Amino acid sequence: MANPKAGYLQTALTLAAMLSISPLYAADWTVVPSIGASEMYSDNIFLSPAPYQLSDFVTTITPGITVTGTGERLKASLNYSLQDINYLQYSSMDYITQQLNATGNATLVDQTLFLDAGASISQQPLYMAGPMGLGNTSANGNLENVTTTSISPYITHRFNTFATGMARYTHQTMDLSQAGPSNINGYGSAYGLGMFNSTSDTALATLNSGSDFNNLLWGLNLNNTRISYAGTTPMTLAQYSANLGYLITPRFKVIATGGYEDDSFAYIGQNPRSNFWNLGFDWSPSVRTNLEVAEGERFFGRTHTLKFTHYARMTSWNASYIQDVTTMMMQQTVPPSVTLDLMLQQQIPDPATRQQVVQSMLAALGPQGMLFAQNIMTNQILLVKSFNASAALTLPKDTFLLTIFNTKSAPLQQAVNFLPVAYGAYNYMNIDQYGGTLSWNKQLNPVLTANANINTTYFTFPGQVLEEKMRSFTAGLNRKLSPKLSGNLLVRHQTMDSTPANIGYSFSENAIIAGLMYLF
User: Fold this and answer.
1) Per-residue pLDDT tens for 437-482?
2) Whole-angstrom distance, CA of residue 218 vs CA of residue 199
3) 3-state percent breakdown (helix, strand, coil) of the chain, nearest 5
4) Helix (H, G, I), strand (E, B), or coil: what is residue 496?
């Protein structure tokens, strides 16, 4: 089993490096400690299949702290909470887990040397063929802590009006450890996690044309990433390319890219060392609308790229489609709180009001906040084809958010180490995920909000008979009881159905949760 203390130590060291430079720069700092408490009743606390459901009360104590720093040379933010989860009847299952999202950006030398750093702790499902539910208080044996750290110094230089250059080095780590009790329902989240611990080192360099070239655009690019999983031979993903574009109008440009891909891993299928090309356009008909479309070819076949954004007074629209060669570490998604904040930024410009809406939604969706596809725990190189779209509508007292996704992943190499259980084999297969979430948040009065969320997600495994469907519904109320004290009440219903039943996993759960949060 991976050592959780090692992951937390790595996180602490990264945060120390990120914040140690803060005394050198003037910044406005805000520190807000908090303490939360909640009580949950679940009629299926272990998310067990019928007829093995067991009910219980769960008490969770959540101390936390939020730190923000803003200055001319430094921006930093940290959101941390510790969850002490206690079961009334099954106290042997009690456990402690953590949530963290921290980022920092510092200017070390004006217009020349910069530093980015970050760290995160979250809980994610391990087995794609195992129980997956909302939140992390159900002791289902299929959750692990994912701890990531990142530190990235980079330099920029302007060659007068000829060109602008950038060189960046990024070191990342990822460690997995057991989250909660293992070996529940026959699923053990502690088995074989060490094989997923990994590090990556990326060198990135770019040189782009300056104003000397007027409407002619050119660039040179180098991107080399070395990935090491525990007990395996290091792998390399590398691209060297040049691009040429032309600004036809101030709002419309065409871009052509060509280069060589020099990936090094034990591949199956097409050789990952080959030339590649890409041709597309970038159109911004207004400051609120942007469309990027490209067509190309890489070693795995034709590629298609789409990125669309449009913002109006009450609505925002986003859509993207991308095909890429990636790894589990590179797939680690932006935390749901950040994703929701970005989606609602245009419609709710006030940060405090926006944060209230985001927290209301996350209280229902849980820490994982499955807005898009589930990350796959595997030590393979993957080909991922992903479509994501979202639409938000903001009215004076109502906010609606719709997200849909369709993600297909296919391994490009045989796994060296496998999860040592039969149902773990599905993590190493072709996996298709598709579904969506509809969220509604309503301001009933200045101190009371209501929210509701509906989610449906499908998992299929091409070439296999197994199909899974997850559905959930939540509804809740959040009330501000005083300037520093708030309370919430949430009800939820969630199901997971698999066919055939003797291969997959199925369960149904109903729960009610009441909580208080105090900000010091």
Assistant:
1) 998 989 999 999 999 999 999 999 998 888 999 999 999 999 999 9
2) 33
3) 10, 60, 30
4) strand
